[in-house]
UniProtKB/TrEMBL annotation:
This is SalK. InterPro entries: HTH_67 (IPR054058). Pfam families: HTH_67.
């Protein structure tokens, strides 16, 4: 078993933090809506559930709710498994690949996509995935069964997806161990100032403002939030320990890549996502505490 140093864990988390949004660009891209509408999926929530769950096959609502964690089951069940009658998982995966390609070409430009740096980043990220593990990681394991695309920018996106879902699966285990239910996890993350803004959570996760308020009340009873909805000292410690446990569960890919490899991948990934952000990859009000 590899034991990561505190500095190694911070470096690994920093690397993940610039890989994760590269994967997520397509969720906010008009190209995904366009490609999925072309195969009959026009609802935004249905499109998200289908695009992210398709690697698992034609699964039911229970599987999606379990693996996505913080979406209301009733919202999921409104679209799954019905979405698979509109388009098969294979059709959705093909549409997603076209959308990712179009999105990255629009955000980064063909010159960056064809650059030696993109090929280098793909190689480094794929090397990191060699140490990922499938057990108890359903979303990662499903995506790990997909073929690696030949084009470097799509191979890099694929590797970023594997690393994102590998960490994400571990994070869900940490949330469960921390006794945070789906809404409490969202509310406490918002309180850090680093989570998705309530406006976006309420529009996408299916929970009502009343359910958010009730979760905040439960967190106040646990002394995680104060009367103003800010994290208490206990709440800061809870979120810190939660991320540290997620780091521990996700250490192997970055330990396998090595210190210099992590540093180089972080450098390359930072440049790519910086260009994408400058091109408007995400809404300006996506992150923060404002409702």
């Amino acid at each position: 078993m590899t034991t990561a140093s505190p500095s190694g864990a911070r470096a690994a988390r920093h690397c993940h933090n610039v890989l994760n949004p590269f994967h997520s660009t397509h969720y906010f891209s008009p190209d995904l809506g366009k490609e999925l509408a072309a195969v009959g999926i026009t609802d935004r929530s249905a499109a998200y559930f289908a695009a992210r769950a398709a690697a698992m096959g034609a699964v039911g609502a229970g599987t999606v709710t379990a693996t996505f964690y913080n979406f209301k089951h009733e919202l999921v069940a409104r679209h799954v498994p019905a979405v698979w009658r509109t388009a098969s998982p294979e059709t959705v995966l093909a549409a997603r690949a076209r959308a990712v390609d179009a999105t990255l070409r629009r955000l980064l430009g063909d010159e960056i996509l064809a650059s030696p740096e993109m090929a280098e980043a793909a190689g480094l990220a794929l090397r990191a995935t060699e140490a990922c593990t499938r057990h108890a990681r359903p979303l990662y394991a499903a995506h790990a069964d997909l073929p690696v695309p030949e084009e470097p920018h799509l191979a890099y996106w694929h590797a970023a997806t594997l690393l994102r879902e590998h960490r994400g699966d571990g994070h869900l285990a940490a949330l469960l161990a921390a006794d945070l239910d789906p809404v409490e996890a969202l509310v406490s993350h918002v309180a850090t100032g680093k989570g998705m803004a309530p406006k976006w959570l309420l529009a996408t996760r299916g929970w009502t403002p009343e359910e958010f308020d009730a979760a905040a009340d439960r967190l106040r009873e646990r002394k995680v939030l104060d009367a103003a909805g800010e994290l208490t000292e206990l709440g800061v410690a809870l979120r810190r320990d939660l991320e540290a446990e997620t780091d521990r569960l996700d250490r192997e890919p970055y330990a396998h890549l090595g210190e210099s490899g992590v540093a180089r991948l972080t450098e390359l990934a930072t440049g790519f996502i910086g260009t994408a952000l400058a091109a408007g990859a995400f809404p300006a009000d996506l992150i923060g505490k404002a409702a």
